[in-house]
Amino acid sequence: MQRDHFLSSWVHWLTRLSIFGILCLMQQPSAWMDALDGSVPNRLEVASDEFDARGPVDTAFVEQVFHAICQSGIRHPRVVMRQAILETGWFRSPFLMTRNNLFAFRRGHYLRFDQFGHSILFYKAWQDKNMPTLVDDYYRFLDQIKYGSPDYTSHLKNITWNRDCPSIPVADRAVTWFSRA
After folding, report:
1. Cα(62)–Cα(19) distance, rounded to whole angstroms?
2. pTM for this entry
């Protein structure tokens, strides 16, 4: 009798867990693909050229990314743009760019997004959840939560990106989805 009750509750718990997993996949299936397909890069792959960011910078794409960051309503967009530049090597890292992952988001494995705009919205959701409403010094906030390596913010400050978002009326703030062709 006890064994039947134990098995019944175990099956019930597994069913609920499966339903939760399916619902998560429905929301952003590609962001979970790396965690589900078992493709963990080995040490030889990590040392390969897929992390190497060489070649010319696509300035039109850089502008598209900054425009999307501005339209998303992300706070401190200048610093966030510097983060995307640092993480992707001016958007030339094949490893992150093929995943449309501008900020090197990970959940065990690097997340994969359908479009780079989804990565920006993911950052916005992260920021809205984790950052207090009033933060004057975003670099200090990143240091306080230990975002990145110990020298992460000093690397960000060395990136030459000093532009601010143009004024965008709130009514016109519709996120534009960009996909890199």
Report:
1. 39
2. 0.66
